[in-house]
Amino acid sequence: xxxLSIEYRPVAxxxxxxxxxxxxxxxxxxQIAASIRAFGWTNPILIDGAHGIIxxxxxxxxxxxxxxxxxxxxxxxxxxxxxxxxxxxADNKLAEQAGWDKELLALELGELKTAGFDLDVLGFxxxxxxxxxxxxxxxxxxxxxxxATLAEQFLVPPFSVLxxxxxxxQERKQAWIEFGLRSEEGRDAxxxxxxxxxPPHVYTAKNAYEARVGHRVSWEDFLAAHxxxxxxxxxxxxxxxxCEVMYRWFSPPSxxxxxxxxxxxxxxxxxxxxxxxxVGCDLRAEQIEANRTQWADIGHPDDPAPVWHCGDSRxxxxxxxxxxxxxxxxxxxxxxxxRYSDDPADLSNMGYPQFREAYxxxxxxxxxxxxxxxxxxxxxxxxxxxxxxxxHFVSDTIAAFTEAGLRYYNELILVxxxxxxxxxxxxxxxxxxxxxxxxxxxxxFVKGDARRATQDCGEVxxxxxxxxxxxx
Length: 472
Known about the structure:
This protein is an alpha/beta fold. The chain contains 18 helices and twelve strands. It has four domains: 91 residues, Alpha-Beta Complex (Conserved hypothetical protein from pyrococcus furiosus pfu- 392566-001, ParB domain), CATH 3.90.1530.10; 39 residues, no CATH class; 254 residues, Vaccinia Virus protein VP39 (Rossmann fold, 3-Layer(aba) Sandwich), CATH 3.40.50; 34 residues. 42% of the residues lie in helices and 15% in strands. Helix 12 links the parallel strand 6 and strand 7. About 3% of the residues have low confidence.
């Protein structure tokens, strides 16, 4: 009989299984971390005799997110290699076979809610909680049914809040990623490793390095000592589901999309897969080349190939000469929040007053290439000055489009997973009262008549199978 006693092992010493087929989204890891904070360690990590994780990868990721130094473990050194590989699958699959007594579950959830308990730590989405409570209590949940119907019609409900944490959104996003989207390619090491939002495992590596050297080090010094970290992306990449939603809602099925700040491949690839012609512009030649290479790898001959121009977005009217766009859609650089290149023409290298003037000029020229009775959408977020106050980037964007002759029509809030914010927000709040930001603003404008623009967009068509050619 083997010894199955629980021992605490250093989190840094544990190694994930190389062929673990179970995935854990940032949102799920955040939920597991919240559970550990609320209930403590109630389920140990199972490891082999060499500190390799057999079961408990999600708990291990949550421990790193919480910056815990130790985790309770049970060593299963007696398992053969074949048994270990089988157990990794069985541990996850067997849990899926369980069901719920919905009446009892609804009773428990309702009483916990009445008692003021935070139901978020239970792992359910807010919509699912409402549905379970109402369904189990025997009440007709018309709101949940209506929400499901709206999602079937419009991909996600056309509400002012878009929740990228929901399971349906995450599953759709994973489908796009598995199709082959690699938006991080073409970005240099400095950009891939965003100085403002590192992943949890990078914080762990930096903390360990500082402990070894006995003092704090800058990110530049840390990267110089650990060049392998540069391969791990921490920069912002565009959400393909948000992109799909905006295309389906605000552009005709065979329309032309103009993107003055192209950046990575996502907006171009998603446009092509949805039958839209895409024309984008970006200053960095290596980014454009990476985008074109990616399309060559995953594009389908029947799809309209995206066009990426390499050049200064202040000349977007020249690159889009002859183009009459059905949608202007982009995610501009957030001033100097992320530095994209050393080129003086790069907007991210400019002081904010100069940046704002160039930004307004680009929006003016982009709006000039937009047809009448059409929409424009920009994804933006507030950015802080070096002194810590917001620069009014959102309102500057609205003002720029208004000056270009478009009317401010919709504001949507994209709620995103907190990821490493759980590590950073506490210190920032204690020292400065700065609030951790988990949303972006999606601003929609209309040029001309909104009703005619809506009619020209046509019915929203939601395809359940996005990539039929990959399943032939």
